[in-house]
Design a protein that fits this description.
Mean pLDDT of chain A: 85
Shape of chain B: elongated
Largest sheet of chain B: none
Distance between the termini of chain B: 51 Å
Low-confidence stretches of chain A: none
Largest interface: A-B, 18 and 21 residues
Radius of gyration of chain B: 23 Å
Mean pLDDT of chain B: 81
Strand content of chain A: 5-15%
Number of strands of chain B: 0
Number of helices of chain A: 4
Oligomer: heterodimer
Strand order of the largest sheet of chain A: 1-3-2
Strand content of chain B: under 5%
Chain lengths: ~120, ~160
């Protein structure tokens, strides 16, 4: 009998990994860029220091969720060359699967009238 | 200018702290972490927010990160049977145990001095354990060196 095996997507993700994947979904970023984007995406509710950020990046690189890009200077900052990170195909699949999981949870919560529609951070 | 020298000083100390990460992690991320530390420092300073709290927070958070990475490395090295890593851990454990026992023996001897109490029953097994620990430390050191040489001679 045939059994459908779901793709390995590493879901569920930790909040740090989810936010980093979200930050990298649109474009490549360096460490500080990721930190700023995570802060912006979460309305300032999720902040991470260098230790947490790079610990997560290490695990995500090992898991194949992200890749290192070329080292280059950020024109909006100083003249230091920085390592950029980009989301991989597996990272995109994993992010979609995780967001779908969140969507299903939110639907259940809305059906149970635990939360209203149009839920966002801190509301 | 004074602020820049403060940043440079903090950056140098942060860079030293990063030296305690496992080598693989350090090679991969130390430069980026140092840059990110300096970026956040500059951002807070430009926004007129205090940097002292950030510096302490970053040092504490990074210190915890260092411990986590070492634990993860030990776990992965035992999973991949990285003998030199396991031998190093055993050696450190044996040396630590031996030092602890020596301290205990000395304390017992000092406390028992002049009381006429027979402490042979306590000291003898402890001394035996010290000897065993010392032997384990020596054996693991030799084995780790051999494993290192063997690993180095492999392509």
């Amino acid at each position: 009998m045939l059994r459908v095996v779901p793709p390995k997507t590493h879901a569920p993700l930790t909040p740090a990994v989810l936010h980093i994947l979200l930050a990298l979904a649109a474009e490549e970023r360096h460490g500080y860029g990721i930190m700023k984007q995570v802060q912006a995406d979460s309305g300032g509710q999720v902040t991470m220091g260098p230790g947490t950020l790079y610990g997560s990046l290490n695990r995500m690189l090992d898991a194949g969720l992200i890749r290192e890009s070329a080292r280059r200077v950020d024109p909006e900052m100083d003249d230091e060359r920085r390592i950029y990170y980009r989301i991989s195909a597996l990272g995109q699949t994993t992010l979609k699967a995780e967001l779908e999981r969140y969507r299903r949870v939110l639907t259940v919560a809305q059906q149970s009238h635990i939360v209203g529609k149009g839920v966002a951070y801190g509301q | 200018m004074a602020s820049d020298s403060k940043l440079e000083r903090s950056r140098v100390w942060y860079s030293r702290l990063l030296g305690f990460y496992p080598q693989r992690f350090r090679d991969r991320f130390a430069e980026g972490m140092e840059q990110t530390f300096a970026d956040v420092y500059r951002e807070r300073r430009a926004a007129g927010r205090g940097v002292t709290g950030f510096v302490f927070g970053a040092f504490a958070e990074t210190f915890i990160g260092i411990l986590v990475q070492h634990v993860e490395q030990m776990r992965s090295s035992s999973m991949t049977r990285d003998t030199s890593g396991v031998l190093k851990t055993v050696r450190l454990g044996a040396i630590g145990l031996a030092l602890l026992l020596v301290c205990g023996i000395v304390t017992v001897m000092v406390l028992a001095r002049g009381t006429g109490e027979d402490i042979t029953g306590v000291v003898a097994p402890a001394l035996l354990l010290v000897i065993v620990s010392a032997v384990v430390a020596v054996v693991t050191t030799v084995a780790a060196k051999r494993a290192g040489n063997h690993g180095a001679s492999r392509p």
